[in-house]
Amino acid sequence: MAGKNNFSGFDTVCIRGGHTSESNRAHLTPIYASSTYTFDSAEQAIAVFKGEEEGYIYGRWGNPTIAEAEEKIALLEAYGLKHKDGSPLKLKALLHSSGMSAICTMLLSNIKAGQKIITHFSLYGGTHELVEKILPGLDIDAVIVDFHDMSKVEDALKADANIRLMHIETPANPTLQCVDIEALSALGKKYGLTVCVDNTFATPYLQQPFKYDVDYVMHSTTKFLNGHGTLIGGVMVGRDLEKMKSSVTKMHRMLGGNSNAFEAFLLTNGLRTFGLRMERHCANAQKVAEFLERHTGIEKVNYLGLASHPDHAICKKQMRNGGAMLSFELKGGFDAGVAFINRLKMCTNAVSLGTCDTLVCHAASTTHLGVPREKRLEFGITDGLIRMSVGIENIEDILQDLEQAITAPGQ
Ligand SMILES: *Cc1c(COP(=O)(O)O)cnc(C)c1O
Asked: Does residue 166 fall inside a structural domain?
């Protein structure tokens, strides 16, 4: 069902990729609010069910509005990449109801009871809980290794032949740790593992994990891909087209984590400006990081685009630039964090990330409130740590708001 999708520019793919002509000639693909699809005859139904004729059957299995968003994301992840024989890389994407749902389909369609996954200690909180609390109940355990140390990773793989899947998240939420996808994927492949990357923070604008032979990429489309904070969604993208169309599609349908036409429409609409938004997000983030690094009220800035970040070299190797996410520590600990948040006049105090407007959150008083202090300090989440998803407002407004909120009156 893919249209003419051989565009040369990334932004052209954002705007036009995945669109197919529509029977009523609507300019944009409408929101197909229909749970089921009709057949002309019993014979045609048989052909569609057998897969001999393309066609939609039932909404949980697919929908034209969903198909457009899926194809657009598959094209963006494959943008400019080639198979070993030089032909353009083809990928298949499956849209999900959330990022967590996409991770579940990815894991459950690739490992079974008795097998293990290997991953890094710094992960998105939801993924961390899934791996620590849910999967062991299905007899799927996780081996946690520092992914910065390839010899430790190799030792773990040598020691346990039950490890069958590697889950990489880079840059990681919220610490912004970056790990080397090429080196990890090569090790994973050497031991016959399935290799998955959570590309939510980087997006295909900054980093394309399929360049390094990984098997799957997943996203929370809730974040930069939608970009407007109007939906919860996820996507799983795979390179083995046969497997994506058979066992992975089956798992997706049986788990029931499908997206819906309305949110797929919002996602497609958001994606049209994705390249442009990312350009501004990243340019603003670099300026914010440099401003904070010079500021006397700031203890430390964590931004991958600064030479001071411990993973700056890995970032330069695999990412276009330092991205749109950063965090910083205020001098004065927990109370300084709370006071800073309360003094903000423009930046939005909310969790999540990737929206047009700048979002800030004080981790110790929000996302990590329930985590014991010693444990969160271990993960680098200090008392005065502020996470910031830099928006696309004009930079002078962002800097002015930060300046007045960092510098308390009378200080
Ligand atoms: C938000 C997020 C998720 C989970 O996505 P949901 O859409 O909230 O289910 C997974 N991984 C990362 C890195 C995230 O930031």
From this structure: yes
Q: Which residues pair with 258 in a beta bridge?
A: 96
For atom 8 of ligand 1, which residue has the closest CA? 99
Q: Could you say which DSSP state residue 160 is in? A: -
- Distance (angstroms) between ligand 1 centre and the Cα of 24 equals 36
Domain co-membership, 206 together with 100:
yes
In this structure, the answer to whether residues 217 and 316 fall within a common structural domain is: no
- Structural domain span for residue 120: 10-271
DSSP 306-335: STTSTTHHHHHHHSSSS-SEEEEEETTHHH
Site residues for ligand 1, CB cut-off 6 Å: 98-100, 124, 126-127, 169, 173, 198, 200-201, 220, 222-223, 232, 234
pLDDT, tens digit (0-9, with 9 covering 90-100), for 23-70: 889 999 999 999 999 999 999 999 999 989 999 999 999 999 999 999
Domain boundary among 271, 287, 307: 271
Examine the domain organization and report whether 253 and 215 are in the same domain: yes
Mutate to test the pocket of ligand 1, among 220, 231, 361 (most ligand atoms within 8 A of CB): 220
Instruction: State the distance from the centre of ligand 1 to the C-alpha of 52, rounded, in angstroms.
Output: 37
Q: What is the number of domains present in the chain?
A: 2
Q: Are both 245 and 334 inside the same structural domain?
A: no
How far is the C-alpha of 207 from the C-alpha of 359, rounded, in Å? 22
- Residue 197: strand pairing partners: 168, 217
- Does the model's pTM come out above 0.90? yes
- The pLDDT value recorded for residue 409 is 56
DSSP string, 255-278: HT-B--HHHHHHHHHHHTTHHHHH
pLDDT in tens, 95-145: 999 999 999 999 999 999 999 999 998 889 899 999 999 999 999 999 999
Nearest-CA residue for atom 11 of ligand 1: 124
- Span from the CA of 229 to the centroid of ligand 1 (angstroms): 13
Say if residue 266 is in the same domain as residue 282: no
- Give the position, in ligand 1's atom list, of the atom nearest the Cα of 200: 13
* Domain C-terminal end among 230, 252, 271: 271
